[in-house]
Automatic annotation (TrEMBL):
Pfam families: Cyclin_N. It comes from Theileria annulata. The keyword Disulfide bond does not apply. One of its GO terms (molecular function) is cyclin-dependent protein serine/threonine kinase regulator activity. One of its GO terms (biological process) is regulation of transcription by RNA polymerase II. This is Cyclin, putative. InterPro entries: Cyclin-like_dom, Cyclin-like_sf, Cyclin/Ssn8, Cyclin_N. Belongs to the cyclin family. Residues 20-112, 134-225 form the Cyclin-like domain. Keywords: Cyclin.
Amino acid sequence: MIDEHVDKKTYEMLLAYGSEQIQKAGILLQLHAVTIATGQSILHKFYLYHSLKEFDIRKTSASCCFIACKLEENHRKLEQIAKIFEFLKYYEDKYYKYSIENENKLKKEILEIEKQILIGFAFRLDKIIVSPHRYILQYTYTLFHNLDKYSSHTVDKLAQRAWGYLNDSMRTSLCCMIKPAAISVGCIYLAATSLGIPLKKETMWFKVFETTWEEIVIVCKTMYSLYSMGKPKYLII
């Protein structure tokens, strides 16, 4: 459901912003791509049932990143998470003053929100969160393995571009709309289209991956909406 306290545009903007914060923090913390994606998925699924007005997107993003590190066994200390997210806030807001007090406060808030997230998902996050990154490379090379007319260089380029689309997709709520494998297939389709490689509906190629054409359309429309949004930014609500 969409947060009843904010309009759809604000909801999408803030979720995209929070996802981007997790990605930036993940890069600075040198986290695996799957860990970053897991944190973003937790964020989107949490806000299906909780209000952006009640839970600040910056603090919740930090908590989701912390949980993802544990879930994917890509461990980082609470102090590291808090320090990086405080740095991101300081870097973005020229009026914000970084301090040890604020960092310690964020550490407590991360743990408080973590409890809310774990309780909300009945401590079953490992069963609920599955990253589409687990599928995309395997699917790409499986699909093009027997197509001799495409060089290995072209297929590698397609895989790289599909991976990029997939990273961008984690700024949307696609993970709450369709299954992870379908998101991967949709991103492969977008990558192929951008490179002029035809993947026609009539060939039913997507059925090999237990995906429907309707799911691919959902991916395309959602990604178009994301790219039309512009740069995500923090909004006070």
